[in-house]
Design brief:
Elements lengths: L4 H32 L12 H15 L3 H7 L2 H6 L2 H15 L1 E14 L10 E11 L5 E13 L2 E10 L6
Antiparallel strand pairs: 1-2, 2-3, 3-4
Helix pairs in contact: 3-5
């Protein structure tokens, strides 16, 4: 079989176009695989965005002194363990001794529990943060925060919250 120059040129164009199509397909597949490995509903830290939103809302409410709102929007598991007055008093004490929560939190550990037990529903998150608080005198206080969040009907609710700090031991 002999190819004429014009036939060779057409053949080269077809091969080149075919290689470009394969390269484009390969790039599309890489993008698809990379995006599929990142769940749309998760932030870079791996925490579901709705859980992060619940923590951010808690922080805003705490800093604004809306302790009753925190209590009424918390999970039933929270409200069944403490009264509104006990919850408010705890938050007031935290705010007096530590101040406002700064947005500078560093996630130190987190675990999702699918079969939680201990009175928690099947899907819960326990998140530990190193957190900075801004005290009334302008100084900062370091603390370890632990959030227990449960997922119900597509949203996360606070089921537990604890803070550990040397300033609370005084």
């Amino acid at each position: 079989m002999t190819l004429h120059l014009s036939s060779k040129g057409r053949l080269l164009k077809l091969l080149y176009a075919s290689k470009l199509k394969r390269l484009a397909l390969l790039c599309a597949m890489i993008v698809l695989v990379a995006s599929a490995s990142c769940d749309v509903d998760e932030r870079q830290s791996g925490i579901p965005s709705k859980a992060q939103d619940a923590i951010n809302l808690f922080t805003e409410d705490f800093n604004a002194g809306r302790f009753e709102k925190i209590y009424t929007e918390a999970a039933e598991e929270w409200r069944s363990r403490v009264t509104l007055d006990q919850s408010n008093e705890t938050f007031r004490t935290l705010k007096e001794r530590l101040g406002d929560i700064k947005q500078e939190r560093t996630l130190t550990s987190g675990r999702q529990q699918q079969n939680a037990g201990a009175g928690l529903p099947a899907n819960s998150l326990v998140l530990n943060y190193n957190t900075k608080f801004k005290r009334g005198d302008g100084t900062e206080a370091d603390a370890l925060e632990t959030f227990t969040l449960i997922e119900r009907d597509g949203r996360y609710q606070l089921a537990g919250y604890s803070v550990s700090s040397n300033l609370l031991k005084q």
